[in-house]
Write a structure and sequence with these properties.
Layout (H helix, E strand, L loop, with lengths): L7 H6 L3 E4 L7 E5 L5 E7 L12 E8 L6 H5 L3 E5 L4 H16 L4 H23 L6 H6 L3 H10 L7 H8 L3 H12 L3 H18 L4 H7 L5 H12 L3 H5 L14
Antiparallel strand pairs: 1-4, 2-3, 2-4, 3-5
Helix pairs in contact: 3-4, 6-7, 7-8, 10-11
Length: 256
């Protein structure tokens, strides 16, 4: 397993796209202080820009990060904020994004997308460091012990994880780990592992990977066992997804 990192695997598995948009459809906005300088970044549900006075809005964009299939995005509150006065480097990112948007030079869209990705990572880091009062994945990643077990699941989804193994990684007794995980993440370790595996399996099937290969990759003893688990969650045979490259035939959320 790589060095302890709460976000990298999620960033790698779910492509993040940032595109400037009107406030009415934006999921990422930057607002100004009383002097007109960038002060806050807000990230949340579509249309969050509509809740601000127009003169206070300096930048707005739509962020596509895998939708409800991304367990971290699905666990976020409707709106999270970030004070740019606490992070001069993030404030510089915002200034660069606004400059690229205003200049409209060749390649500006790519630059804004990459700067936006860095900005969101910094925002999420701040949220993780601050902790979360709402049960869910963000709260789990904020917990210094549970987060180690969650990262182990993210980085090694095909390993035959037992609760005992994950408890040892977290540095907790088995009973304390199981109780704390359920209370903080709002599902059992086994349920989260199963959900994460099926999310990744869905991605791989959309790319055209064979069912038997996907089953082995994510720790299933047989293609038949994987197919039963997949159908139980999605209501469809995984083979049908290989014939639907867009993945549009399936719901975006894996039921717990």
């Amino acid at each position: 397993m790589r060095s302890f990192d709460r976000l990298t695997t999620l960033m790698e598995r779910f492509s993040l796209q940032v595109k400037p948009s009107p406030p009415e459809t934006a999921t990422l906005v930057v607002t100004a202080d009383q002097d007109g300088a960038p002060r806050h970044v807000w990230f949340g549900a579509a249309g969050i820009g509509s809740g601000f006075v127009a003169k206070d809005l300096l930048f707005s964009a739509e962020v596509d990060w895998g939708g409800a299939a991304n367990p971290l995005l699905a666990a976020l509150p409707d709106r999270i904020g970030f004070d740019l006065s606490m992070d001069g480097e993030a404030a510089s990112l915002v200034s660069l994004m606004r400059s690229e948007l205003a200049a409209a030079r060749c390649g500006s869209a790519s630059v804004i997308n990459r700067l936006g990705e860095v900005l969101i990572v910094r925002l999420l880091r701040a949220q993780i460091e601050a902790g979360s009062t709402e049960p869910g994945l963000l709260a789990g990643l904020s917990d210094p012990r549970l987060s180690r077990a969650i990262v182990a699941i993210h980085d090694g989804p095909g390993r035959p994880w037992r609760n005992e193994d994950l408890a040892a990684i977290a540095g907790l007794s088995l009973s304390r780990f199981s109780e704390t995980f359920l209370a903080v993440v709002s599902e059992t370790p086994a349920a989260y592992l199963r959900r994460w595996r099926l999310i990744l399996a869905r991605q791989d099937l959309v790319k055209g990977d064979r069912v038997d290969a996907v089953a082995r990759r994510y720790g299933y003893d047989s293609a038949e066992g994987f197919t039963r688990a997949f159908k139980r969650c999605y209501g469809l045979n995984p083979v049908s997804l290989r014939h639907s490259p867009s993945g549009s035939a399936l719901p975006s959320v894996v039921p717990v």
